[in-house]
Amino acid sequence: MRLGSLAALAFSVLHVFAQGDQTVLVEPQVAMLPTLADLLTIESSTSIFYSYSRELASISDTLSDSQSVPVTLIAPTNKAVMALARKPHQGPVDSEITITDEELADAQARANVERWVSAHIIPQSPITFDETYPTLLTGKSITFKGDAEDWRNAVIEGDIHIVGKREASNGVLFLVDRAISSD
């Protein structure tokens, strides 16, 4: 899209030079922000979270669509995901059931991942701090404390620190030092 706009601008400028006395008005080009999916693609510190979220078509579409309702995405860093006692596909501790059917095990792992990723998405953006917001996970809300003007001093759920913030065309990405609990 940008390449096409640049080509059109170059053609207009060339046309001005070719005609000499003709004035061409060029509308200013507005720089498009990347989508949340674009940000996760280039943000290597959240590649594990992004790989989990890409497995889920509905969530992947939400993160990729710049025309969708803006969301606030809380993405744990790779270090935060690796520090989890149980990985997202394993589900909560109380689900220690041995599943012998491979299809059933895959379905359960997928449901666990969807639950975990959904706990990290607030279907609203922008947000203000010192508020509680529902996530895409039914019954799960996240509380933010701090100053929205200086997100570096804010905490989520009392002890999760924001380590980065990125603006996107379809919302805001907060990078955090711990994963949100989906329990």
From TrEMBL:
The keyword Signal applies. Keywords: Signal. Residues 1-18 form the signal peptide. The keyword Signal applies. This is FAS1 domain-containing protein. It holds the Pfam family Fasciclin. InterPro entries: FAS1_dom_sf, FAS1_domain, Mug57-like. Residues 33-180 form the FAS1 domain.
